[in-house]
Specification:
Chain lengths: 389, 167
Amino acid sequence: MHIFELRLSNYRNYAQTTVRLDRGLNLFVGENAQGKSNLLEAIYLLSTLRSSRASTDADLVRRDILDSEFPIARLECQVERSAGNLHLEVAIVGRTTDPQHRAGKRVRVNGLPKRASDAVGQLSSVLFTTLDIDIVAGPPLLRRRYLDMMVSQVDRGYLRAMQKYQRVVQQRNSLLKRIAERQASSSELSFWDQELAHASGTIMHARAEALGHVAVQAAFHMDRLSDGQDSVSVTYRPSIGGLDESDSPIDDTEWTSRMLRALESLRAREIGAGSTLAGPHRDDFHVEINGFSAGPHASRAQQRTAALALRLAEASYLRKVLADDPVVLLDDVLSELDARRRRGVLEFLDSFQQTLITTADPDRVRDIMTRAAGRFVVQAGAITRFEGE
Amino acid sequence: MLRVPEHEAAELASAILDVKQKIRFCSICLNITESDPCSFCRDESRDAGLICVVEQPLDIIALDRAAAFKGRYHVLHGCLNPLEGLGPDQIHVRELLTRVKEGQVREVIMATNPSLEGEATAMYVQRLLSPLGVRVTRLARGLPSGADLEYIDDVTLARALEGRQDL
Ligand SMILES: [Zn+2]
């Protein structure tokens, strides 16, 4: 798929802007804090209905109008997809004093109002940022987020299971605390255990499948980008353990019953802790570089390349499941790579319908300038196309 | 409220007070009523062997409007919701158990909301009552998940009642 028109109004530092984008490579050049990252964040937000920077809705509305009568940011795009063209609109109400109106996001898909959760993935995208290195070197939370944002774009059932799971965990934790305080009996747990295990089965099955694909693709890209110098392996580590290498693929029913067994064996400890100790909210996947855990044992450069390989793997996962290309967004990630790795990334992305790249340092990425179909300058919340050097 | 003439405000106040003094819970089904037992529990044409269990008194109005149900009701005044501190002792499950133990009841229809908490309640009651040999059923699936009973249209509700399934 590719976006041919994007409109932003009262979003971050953009008052009113319309950009017509090209197929192929679009390059955005500008100093820092002019709106390059905001632009890519806008597309990511249209795609996932979430900010890539964990911002609140109020942060997304242009500051000058936040205290006005209509503190509303609007994002809109026109997309050509193999599944049919898409007109996607998101309005973000930053603040409300009138109890009749709620703050939050309103979404329209081809003119029809939709719940935000039903609009996730209508526009598919993958975003590369300089913080991606934390997927490899950071805490498990960031690896789970990588997985969740990837899978929920293409699997509505996954998103629903995640929402239900979070609700069940909250209820179940309260119940565990009440049991510990002898205000409830453990016989009340069985319903919540069942629901928890069902949602877990759906989630863990989808994660295992996605990671199976990611592992193969990430290994391929790591090898290519490092010229055969480094290898990466990616392995799913569900919190309930017991994922034997020799196991044939497990279906969601089997995941569900493994989860139930885990809950049974954890019963006393969970009541003592007053919280749910196993399940998708504690999952992780291990990233190894050249056979060693990537966190402590690899160099920054190796970690960075592995993170790049994971994002490229995400792009190919989305392409495979959708039978269409996601829009690829690279936020200032190429200037930190050497020319060989940069070329390796761009060569792969050539096969995607549309890529948007931002950079503050056009001199360092001259090789991209010549490849770009569209070139733009971003300055003080204005985007202008330029031709020539 | 400030623009209402004083005598009207006084009338309104006494009407509210009146309602508050007259309204009580039905000692059988816990519906809100002016006279105890409530009109549903006094109505001999209603099948006493069939109890429909709801979360709130308003749900009775919805079910009765759908006019597909000719049994009696039981109001829990809530559902199991550990986050809000609501367990079996905080909702009126015990009163339901007593009614079933009296022996006349053949079937209990769980018409709690199709939310996670409503399902938890239905499952809990089923486990509590099934040793007594009473049939426990649940409104048919197809009710929009997360919706409150009182907002569901009559036709959908009537179908859900007809198509109820054993829990
Ligand atoms: Zn009554």
